[in-house]
């Protein structure tokens, strides 16, 4: 088991608990969010949305309190000077990081899909990837750790987006309940704790996997 790239599943689980509702996770393909809401396939949708995302204009959404642009982690002995320099380079991106995959492809990078953030970061540390692509605000508490000093080169964040919760048109009753739940779940302190936990967990997973690889 690995820590996931984002907080969609974690927040959905916490919302279900706060609303005393049964949790049934339904995967929604990129670009299909509005259709899933309109068709009633989901009552609540937890997703990342940029400023111009149609979800914001055509659905009832509520900010969850987490926002970030995309960032990279690189070895300090092999830093790249710009995002454009990723062209032709091997970039590790997790399967769940659809936004990162799209950016890397647009830049002409050679995208290497991996199961989870820890795998991407381990490959960056070992040199199999030139960079690992993740949320910049999650990389911040990770790359300041002493054990990551040699792997803490990065670039300015790009393509900011925020985590939002959207309610289905057929369930307007949920909107005030979601608003009340997020007043507690979406505080700055709660998100600071989640970010720190993510960084610590992923750092341990990278260490665990590297030790296991070295022993075989």
Using brief descriptors, characterize the structure shown.
216 residues; alpha/beta; 8 helices; 41% helix; globular; six-stranded mixed beta sheet
Q: Characterize the main sheet.
A: 6 strands, mixed
Rg (C-alpha, Å): 18 Å
Order of helices and strands: HHEHEEHEHEHEHH
Helix fraction?
A: 40-55%
Number of strands: 6
The residue ranges in which pLDDT falls below 50 over 5 or more consecutive positions are: none
For the termini, the CA-CA separation is 20 Å
Quote the beta fraction: 15-25%
Mean pLDDT comes to 94
Which class best fits the helix and strand makeup?
A: alpha/beta
What secondary-structure arrangement, pairings included, does this model have?
Layout: H1 8-18, H2 33-38, E1 44-49, H3 54-58, E2 60-73, E3 90-94, H4 98-106, E4 110-114, H5 117-126, E5 131-135, H6 136-143, E6 158-167, H7 174-185, H8 188-214
Parallel strand pairs: 3-4, 3-5
Antiparallel strand pairs: 1-6, 2-5, 2-6
Helix pairs in contact: 1-7, 5-8, 6-8
């Amino acid at each position: 088991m690995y820590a996931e790239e984002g907080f969609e599943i974690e927040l959905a689980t916490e919302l279900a608990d706060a609303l005393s509702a049964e949790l049934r996770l339904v995967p929604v393909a990129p670009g299909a969010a509005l259709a899933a809401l309109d068709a009633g396939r989901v009552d609540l949708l937890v997703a990342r949305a940029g400023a111009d995302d149609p979800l914001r204009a055509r659905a009832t959404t509520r900010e969850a309190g987490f926002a970030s642009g995309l960032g990279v982690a690189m070895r300090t002995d092999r830093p790249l000077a710009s995002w454009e320099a990723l062209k032709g380079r091997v970039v590790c991106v997790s399967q769940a990081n659809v936004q990162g995959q799209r950016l890397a492809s647009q830049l002409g990078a050679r995208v290497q899909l991996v199961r989870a953030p820890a795998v991407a970061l381990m490959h960056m540390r070992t040199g199999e990837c030139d960079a690992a692509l993740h949320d910049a605000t999650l990389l911040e508490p990770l790359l300041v750790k002493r054990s990551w000093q040699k792997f803490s080169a990065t670039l300015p964040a790009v393509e900011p987006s925020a985590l939002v919760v959207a309610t289905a048109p057929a369930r307007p009753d949920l909107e005030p309940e979601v608003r009340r739940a997020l007043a507690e779940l979406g505080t700055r302190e709660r998100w600071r704790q989640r970010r720190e936990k993510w960084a610590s967990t992923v750092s341990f997973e990278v260490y665990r996997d590297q030790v296991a690889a070295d022993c075989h």
